[in-house]
Design brief:
Elements: E1 13-21, H1 26-37, E2 42-47, E3 54-60, H2 63-73, E4 80-87
Antiparallel strand pairs: 1-3, 1-4, 2-3
């Protein structure tokens, strides 16, 4: 595995997207996750609570590229009720390490 700066490979726009589904059954949540898993521009997807149903992180080249992916991915799904996107202006921290807790903690 290699960690590459998205900007170095032409994907300098980070979109942080809140997704709310119209119907939140387990089947509908799983279906959304399955559909988003195949989108190359999506680097992370989290099911969250409270608030929106999902937070999706997407790396794209620019705003037109974001618009094209968002239109293709989100508007094609009848169960997506709301999409709210934030665009990163600066990444203050990014780390792939994780803290290893002692067992039993």
């Amino acid at each position: 595995m290699a960690i590459v700066s998205p900007g170095k490979v032409g994907n300098s726009l980070t979109a942080i997207i809140e997704i709310t589904l119209d119907v939140q059954t387990a089947e509908q949540m799983d279906a959304f996750e399955a559909s988003i898993a195949g989108v190359a521009e999506v680097t992370q997807c989290y099911r969250v609570s409270p608030g929106p149903d999902f937070i999706v992180i997407m790396q794209v080249r620019d705003m037109p590229a974001y618009h094209a992916v968002a239109h293709r991915v989100f508007t094609s799904q009848a169960n997506v009720r709301n999409v709210r996107t934030f665009f990163s202006m600066h990444r203050a921290k990014f780390d792939t390490r994780t803290v290893i807790s002692p067992s039993g903690a």
